[in-house]
Amino acid sequence: MKMKPVINIEILRRPASVISSRDLKSHVEQEIHNIGKIETGTNLTQFSNKVLTDNVEVIQICELDGENNLHEKLADLKNEFYPNDVVCRYHVYRMNREGAQLECIDVGDSGEEDQPVAHHWILPSSDFHGLWESLVYDCGVKENLLSYMEATMLFSDCGVDTNIISWNRLVLLYGPPGTGKTSLCKALAHKLAIRTGSRYTHGQLVEINSHSLFSKYFSESGKLVVKMFDKIKELIEDNNSLVCVLIDEVESLTRARESSMSGSEPSDLIRAVNSVLTQIDQMRKYPNVMILTTSNITEAIDVAFLDRADIKQYIGLPSYHAIFIIYMSCIKELIRVNIILSSPEMDSLTFGRLSLDQGEKEENRNVQRLLAVSRLSEGLSGRMLRKIPFLTHALFVKARTVSLDVFISAMESAVIRQKQDTK
């Protein structure tokens, strides 16, 4: 018997909502069946059910389980489903809107000097709402990482003996700057907090910049590391909380170890770095913690980190497949806010459902031109690609509203200028 595909549906409560999650899921299920067809990647904000209107901000129809290949997604126009043909997995959550809190630790001989060491969020956080959906990668990078984190939680909850099957709860994302590694880590933590809402009451994200691990008082660096991780362990002791630790720019640890080994850095520094590795090793015994790390170094990453990482994922520059989807999402947003004028030509084009193969055969001239701009944009980072529409408007459009035809022409000029500026 063929198993039905599973589709994930996320339900964001209103701040004042008090209805039980069980009852809310029941109302959402009824609403979904009343709609008739559901389409992945859509957000529902208008409801026929008053209970949902009073209690829900948005219902997000997310991905199908196992849907992890970008080219297959693009080539598959059938992303509409009848509720009876799929298994709907509902995730109810409430958003924290307080933003990041700065974590400081006493340093120096007097203990009176505070050094910022981390930023701390309660998850799910409004700071990261929509971030997951805005990140576009090839080859199922996002989905594979989320599956890894969910599997880690499952193995922990089931009490799998780590002496028999080993995992370290450590992910390493590496690649050139501007490819979204740090954003992906934050989006992963946010998404995991939503997906594990039935297991944990809330999540927490602690973002550490590895440069902050090293005090200007070299002899204090080891103590600083221990103090910081002691704070993290206090968070982990709450079994109802999922804790994600993000160590950004971990290559600074790599350089510190190499410099210390060669004798060019104080021995206290190598002890501090080793202390970080020891603390990471100690945290693997906790079932409710995940460690996410990033590095801009692609040539050589410290072997100590490589040995500990369960997943070592390279995050490269976007292919033109991904660039096309990024640009489509940007144009859709500018149409939504009436900066780009809508037209019957564009109304007939369903964003996010157009395959590249179809686009290359598409008679729509603007689609052809956007594909050409996407190819021209290869080599730009994801960070820069998201800026191109803004730079297009600021430097080449210079008008309140613009037609799609004119905007795509201006995009081409913006991409050419950006490439010239970075030579």
Automatic annotation (TrEMBL):
Belongs to the AAA ATPase family. PCH2 subfamily. CDD domains: RecA-like_Pch2-like (cd19508). Keywords: ATP-binding, Meiosis, Nucleotide-binding. Residues 167-319 form the AAA+ ATPase domain. It comes from the Eukaryota. The keyword ATP-binding applies. PROSITE patterns: AAA (PS00674). InterPro entries: AAA+_ATPase, ATPase_AAA_core, ATPase_AAA_CS, ClpA/B, P-loop_NTPase, Pch2-like, Pch2_C. One of its GO terms (cellular component) is nucleus. It comes from Cuerna arida. This is AAA+ ATPase domain-containing protein. SUPFAM superfamilies: P-loop containing nucleoside triphosphate hydrolases (SSF52540). GO terms for molecular function: ATP binding; ATP hydrolysis activity. GO terms for biological process: meiotic recombination checkpoint signaling; reciprocal meiotic recombination.
